[in-house]
């Protein structure tokens, strides 16, 4: 229990010393992605082997390391998820990719003991072997600030967080700054909400500070409902103390003494890491009553979601914490005035809070030197889709799409052509080739009819059917709609109905116009953000890829050959031996012909089940 | 200097006078802004999105949840707004039962009204309305989920006003529905039968149970003698649906109509109310005399309140009056009076109340398996029967009720409004029976539309403290305060806000109009020449006659020792 800032400083110095003394460190990626790839077995195996070799295997920085201490740590997400499971070796900074259990012996004997590099485990691109993590093109163009610890320190212990300067910002905020000064710094830095809204955090905090209430709350939105987004998950798993520190600082600034972290139910690892982090912070006296002797008290509780995307919306989230049905409510009153339990509440995203300690520590001017004028700082993105390097990246705001996709992402996979990129999840729009040089920041994207959202980026190649993409996202939105307001509940249902008809070949003249009319009504009249943004994928794909819609509707054809019901199955007469096997396998009797002569499929009867394709031994039946 | 605040609505300056949202201000300005889910006495829900208005920057705001500010400028009817309203209606109709002609609420449905108003002539989406999804388990209301537009008014009334919470939303998105716990039939839930949900429902998804056809059958049966009693609250609410003004006392025409329809004996529940006053005041005074008044005496004439008490506060049952309700007391007497008839006796009660249907069927009120009240018809059902019979109500000449039960007092008539029972009991209990004394009782604080009222009256050298609550949430809150130590001698509980005049079976009316009904009853009281129940000569006749030795058997009930409430 650290009773004052002197003791905190001493603790920090001590752990920092320990960290420096831990010459050899092995950081095994323990983010959910690599864990499901077997990284925990690798961790166990490596620890076992190191101990067997008679070396001191330290999994937590608790004591002064000896010379032969090997630090064996579970780190946060390294980010290079395509190449997982990942293992980083220090002090050299080697990054081993796609590590398997069988590789562990070699890693221990050659690298850990002898300091040699194992080339076959290194990342290779265009014939070049990259030994060190920092040289890899994927990392070179990134600016990992919020994610700086992920992959570099033990994600399960407070000691390494302290060792790298952790809780210094908290100290500064508690003893060297007033609430107003903290808010001014955040406002000056122009930290904008990283959950998608882009609302200036400083202004939000100032609004809460202004309210007169017995109790105020700080709530962290860790719901991260966008399919494919895992930035917040990685921060919660990999560097939980950073976001806890941010929350406490917000509490100091606004006068709140209770904090809640709302984590979606599907993130059990994040919940357990956060729980442990909170316990440890309490042990060290950085949470709880009279923190560091400052008279300021702050407690954090964790609330789990229950599988509703809509609970990522602020008022639905607070309703969920209160034990009520997760449905958004009308505003006013806004959350800053009457939020959780009807009290003034600061509700911010995980990444937003994770930015706070950096700003307090280094100052607003430093923060503004990164990114663009209106969107300073960095943003974490989950880069996924048909590119070479999928994973978790962090870039300065203003980086162009082209740089992200081609320089960091390594370009399109399998040499396919770039077609579109979906930004911001189911509420985001699709951008096409003409938008590749768009800078990624709040305002530029808004102008282009898209939005950064929470940071999910799905890159699509020319084999992707954009109508199907729209249908997929509309299906998601329809499932997740809470059902309260008419435009979202009924409107998205009808839009989905129309899109399903289109992909099944039953599109009608007037469907596109009706989709746009519905989209207009829903965006204008829906109650909450989920509804208001529900139609973006449809509207943006119609805007950028109208020909595809028209092909589906008028030609009953899917140009990318994806939509099952629009595929045509034909028998190549030059390959057909007339064995009649296909005709016998057809459940609807659509194939006819004379034995030893090419058979023919009656398109009007064909139900496109594909049974004939499977039975043909001569590969004479084609789908397209 | 004009200190008043103005805003512009469609270019016209309108004064802001403390309205809590734009919607109320716009309606006051004479514009019928459409809504489904807005209810002035419930929390703002904001789900139907029909009340959107356009602000000066071209953005849209929901009028129900935006407070008015000086200098605001909004438009209520632009091209965009019209388009959106029509689309929302189209979307609702595409998922709604469109068999209006056979619907219980045909002609009384908000969805119909707005579809007509906005000229919805074509619906571009496939009809996904489900088959009728009827829950007929309750004796008081009938639910049909296929007619629900999910406005949430029923949920909010049940939760916020009544604190019962028998229904709530279940599931998500387009599967969202109104459900009871585990989707049980509503009869098995905590529902107390107050019918406020039916009153709030804008469509036919929740309606009052229809017993009209059964009553017609009994009337046409040659072997029945059908008697009927009319509750006080009915006479001031029925007229509006039949061409009169709301609040107008139509008792004379009601009697005339019932006689034409074929009822044999027509009475007024106010007579039964007089009996209730006598029995209940005796009970109150006895409790005080015997020092058994740590807890107040709670009235028992409201069956929804009794049901609520049985379900939520069963420990209070020993303090609920053992008196039957006026309807039940009177029915016992009537059935006794005609017990020698060669015909089968059928007794019908016309009530403002849906819970009375449940009360009539209670085991406690059956004699040899036959209920004292065979059928309860709500005001709405009577309106329907009058219309069915072709009677032009407004042109009827008023007639008088039948003997031998043709006398009632003003104290009995005021039972229909919140505070009426208490005032009637106080009239009986005070020693000064002069008009001045009675007038001062009116001003003690028992009258008015407030949900919680308190008063105290001198009884000898003792102060009698009374409380009057209407709306079950108010009742619950008061009970908690009483449990925490606040003392009252008598507590009147009416489940419906404002009392029976706002019962679940009454025609729906805006809250400002409700007062007119209360005033109508107080006016009827003014016209009665006997003001206090004990002065009703019929009472003495009854106690010396039918009731001799049988007061307990015919006029009282034991709720407290009954283990099963149903």
Could you characterize what this model shows?
Chain A: Residues 567-596, 597-624 form the 4Fe-4S ferredoxin-type domain. Chain A: It holds the Pfam family SLBB. Chain A: Keywords: 4Fe-4S, Iron, Iron-sulfur, Metal-binding, Oxidoreductase. Chain A: One of its GO terms (molecular function) is metal ion binding. The complex is a heterodimer of chains A (624) and B (566). Chain A has 624 residues and is α/β, with parallel strands linked by helices. Chain A has 5 domains: 18-138, 3-Layer(aba) Sandwich (Glutaredoxin); 166-369, NADH-ubiquinone oxidoreductase 51kDa subunit (Rossmann fold); 371-461, Ubiquitin-like (UB roll); 466-555, NADH-ubiquinone oxidoreductase 51kDa subunit, iron-sulphur binding domain (de novo design (two linked rop proteins), Up-down Bundle); 567-623, Alpha-Beta Plaits (2-Layer Sandwich). In chain A, 40% of the residues lie in helices and 15% in strands. The radius of gyration of chain A is 27 Å and the shape is globular. The mean pLDDT of chain A is 93. Chain B has 3 domains: 5-77, Roll (Ubiquitin-like (UB roll)); 88-208, Alpha-Beta Plaits (2-Layer Sandwich), CATH 3.30.70.20; 214-565, Rossmann fold, CATH 3.40.50.1780. Chain B contains 20 helices and 20 strands. In chain B, β1 and β2 form a beta hairpin. In chain B, α9 (269-289) packs across α11 and α9 (269-289) packs across α15. In chain B, 50% of the residues are buried. Chain A binds chain B through residues 308, 310, 325, 327, 329-332, 478-487, 489-491, 493-494, 497, 514, 517-518, 520-521, 524-527, and chain B through 44-49, 52, 60, 62, 64-67, 80, 83-84, 87-88, 91-92, 94-95, 124-126, 149-150, 152, 168-169, 171-176.
Summarize the structure.
Chain A is an alpha/beta fold and 624 residues long.
Key attributes of the depicted protein:
heterodimer, A: 624 residues, alpha/beta, Glutaredoxin, Rossmann fold, Ubiquitin-like (UB roll), 5 domains, five-stranded mixed sheet, 40% helix, globular, B: 566 residues, Alpha-Beta Plaits, 3 domains, 20 helices, EC 1.6.5.11 (chain A)
């Amino acid at each position: 229990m650290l009773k004052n800032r002197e003791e905190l400083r001493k603790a920090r110095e001590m752990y920092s010393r320990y960290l420096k003394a831990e010459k050899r460190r092995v950081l095994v990626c323990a983010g959910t992605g690599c864990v499901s790839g077997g990284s925990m077995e690798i961790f166990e195996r490596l620890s076992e082997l190191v101990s067997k070799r008679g070396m001191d295997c330290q999994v937590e920085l608790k004591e002064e390391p000896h010379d032969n201490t090997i630090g064996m740590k579970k780190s946060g997400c390294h980010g290079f998820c395509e190449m997982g499971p990942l293992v980083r070796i220090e002090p050299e900074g080697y990054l081993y990719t796609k590590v398997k259990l069988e590789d562990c012996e070699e890693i221990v004997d050659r690298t850990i003991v002898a300091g040699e590099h194992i080339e076959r485990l290194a990342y290779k691109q265009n014939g070049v072997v990259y030994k060190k993590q920092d040289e890899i093109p994927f990392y070179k163009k990134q600016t990992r600030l919020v994610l700086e610890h992920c992959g570099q320190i033990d994600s399960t212990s407070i000691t390494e967080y302290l060792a790298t300067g952790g809780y210094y910002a908290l100290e500064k905020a508690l003893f060297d700054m007033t609430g107003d000064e903290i808010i001014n710094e955040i406002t000056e830095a122009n930290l904008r909400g990283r959950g998608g809204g882009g609302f200036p955090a400083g202004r939000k905090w100032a609004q809460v500070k202004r309210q007169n209430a017995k109790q105020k709350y700080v709530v962290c939105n860790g719901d991260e409902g966008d399919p494919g987004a895992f930035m917040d998950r990685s921060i919660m798993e990999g560097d939980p103390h950073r976001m806890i520190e941010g929350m406490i600082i917000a509490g100091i600034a606004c006068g709140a003494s209770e904090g809640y972290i709302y984590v979606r139910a599907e993130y059990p690892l994040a919940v357990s890491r956060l729980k442990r982090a909170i316990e440890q912070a309490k042990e060290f006296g950085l949470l709880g009553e009279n923190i560091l002797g400052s008279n300021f008290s702050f407690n954090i509780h964790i609330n789990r979601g229950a599988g509703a995307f809509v609970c990522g919306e602020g008022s639905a989230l607070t309703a969920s914490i209160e034990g009520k049905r997760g449905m958004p409510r009308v505003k006013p009153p806004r959350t800053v005035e009457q939020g959780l339990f009807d009290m003034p509440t600061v509700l911010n995203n995980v990444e937003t809070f994770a930015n706070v300690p950096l700003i307090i520590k280094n100052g607003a001017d430093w923060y503004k030197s990164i990114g663009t004028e209106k969107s300073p700082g960095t943003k974490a993105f989950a880069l996924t889709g048909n590119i070479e390097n999928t994973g978790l990246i962090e870039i300065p705001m203003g980086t162009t799409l082209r740089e992200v996709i081609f320089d960091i992402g390594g370009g399109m996979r399998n040499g396919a052509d770039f077609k579109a990129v979906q930004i911001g999840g189911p509420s985001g729009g699709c951008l096409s080739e003409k938008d590749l040089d768009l800078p990624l920041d709040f305002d530029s994207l808004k102008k282009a009819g898209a939005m950064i959202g929470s940071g999910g980026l799905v890159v699509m190649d020319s084999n992707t059917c954009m109508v199907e993409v729209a249908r997929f996202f509309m299906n998601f939105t329809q499932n997740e709609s809470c059902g309260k307001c008419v435009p979202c509940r009924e409107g998205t249902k009808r839009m989905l109905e129309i899109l399903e008809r289109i992909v099944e070949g039953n599109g009608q003249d007037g469907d596109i116009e009706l989709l746009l009319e519905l989209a207009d009504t829903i965006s204008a009249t829906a109650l909450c953000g989920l509804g208001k943004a529900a139609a973006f994928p449809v509207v943006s794909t119609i805007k950028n890829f109208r020909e595809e819609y028209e092909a589906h509707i008028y030609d009953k054809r899917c140009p990318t050959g994806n939509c099952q019901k629009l595929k045509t199955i034909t028998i190549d007469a030059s390959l057909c031996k007339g064995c009649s096997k296909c005709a016998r396998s057809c459940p609807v009797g659509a194939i006819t012909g004379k034995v030893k002569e090419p058979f023919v499929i009656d398109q009007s009867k064909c139900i496109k089940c594909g049974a004939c394709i499977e039975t043909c031994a001569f590969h004479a039946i084609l789908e397209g | 200097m004009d200190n008043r605040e103005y805003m512009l609505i469609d270019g016209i300056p309108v004064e802001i006078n403390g309205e809590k949202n734009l919607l109320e201000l716009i309606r006051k300005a004479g514009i019928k802004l459409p809504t489904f889910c807005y209810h002035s006495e419930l929390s703002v829900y904001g789900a139907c999105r029909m009340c959107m208005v356009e602000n000066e920057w071209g953005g849209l705001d929901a009028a129900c949840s935006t407070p008015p500010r000086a200098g605001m400028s909004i438009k209520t009817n632009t091209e965009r707004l019209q388009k959106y309203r029509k689309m929302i209606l189209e979307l609702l109709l595409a998922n709604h039962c469109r068999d209006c002609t056979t619907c219980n609420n045909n002609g009384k449905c908000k969805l119909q009204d707005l579809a007509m108003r906005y000229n919805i002539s074509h619906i571009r989406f496939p009809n996904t309305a489900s088959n009728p999804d009827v829950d007929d388990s309750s004796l008081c209301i009938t639910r049909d989920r296929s007619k629900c537009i999910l406005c949430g008014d029923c949920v909010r009334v049940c939760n916020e006003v009544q604190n019962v919470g028998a229904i709530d939303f279940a599931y998500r998105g387009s599967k969202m529905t109104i459900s009871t716990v585990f989707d049980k039939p509503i009869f098995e839930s905590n529902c107390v039968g107050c019918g406020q949900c039916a009153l709030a429902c804008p469509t036919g998804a929740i309606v009052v149970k229809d017993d009209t056809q059964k009553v017609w059958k009994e009337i046409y049966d040659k072997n029945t003698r059908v008697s009927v009693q009319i509750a006080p609250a009915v006479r001031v609410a029925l007229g509006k649906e039949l061409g009169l003004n709301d609040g107008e006392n139509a008792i004379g025409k009601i009697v005339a109509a019932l006689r034409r329809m074929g009822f044999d004996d027509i009475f007024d529940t106010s007579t039964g109310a007089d009996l209730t006053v006598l029995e209940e005041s005796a009970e109150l005074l006895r409790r005080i005399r015997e020092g058994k008044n740590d807890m107040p005496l709670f009235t028992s004439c409201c069956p929804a309140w009794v049901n609520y008490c049985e379900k939520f506060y069963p420990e209070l049952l020993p303090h609920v009056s053992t008196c039957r309700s006026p309807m039940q007391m009177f029915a016992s007497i009537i059935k006794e009076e005609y017990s020698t008839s060669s015909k089968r006796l059928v007794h019908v009660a016309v009530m403002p109340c849906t819970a009375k249907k449940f009360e009539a069927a209670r085991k406690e009120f059956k004699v040899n398996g036959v209920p004292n009240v065979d059928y309860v018809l709500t005001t709405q059902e009577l309106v329907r029967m009058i219309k069915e019979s072709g009677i032009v109500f407004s042109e009827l000449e008023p007639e008088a009720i039948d003997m031998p039960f043709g006398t009632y007092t003003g104290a009995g008539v005021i039972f229909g409004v919140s505070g009426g029972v208490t005032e009637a009991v106080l009239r009986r209990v005070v020693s000064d029976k002069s008009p001045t004394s009675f007038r001062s009782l009116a001003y003690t604080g028992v009258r008015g539309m407030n949900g919680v009222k308190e008063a105290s009256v001198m009884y000898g050298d003792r102060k009698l403290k009374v409380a009057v609550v209407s709306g079950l949430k108010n009742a619950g809150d008061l009970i908690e305060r009483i449990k925490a130590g606040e003392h009252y001698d008598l507590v009147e509980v009416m489940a419906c806000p404002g009392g029976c005049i706002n019962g679940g079976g009454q025609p729906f009316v805006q809250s400002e109009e409700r007062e007119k009904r209360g005033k109508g009853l107080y006016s009827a009281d003014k016209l009665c020449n006997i003001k206090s129940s004990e002065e009703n000569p019929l009472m003495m006749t009854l106690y010396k006659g039918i009731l001799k030795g049988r007061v307990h058997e015919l006029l009282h009930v034991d709720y407290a020792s009954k283990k099963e409430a149903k």
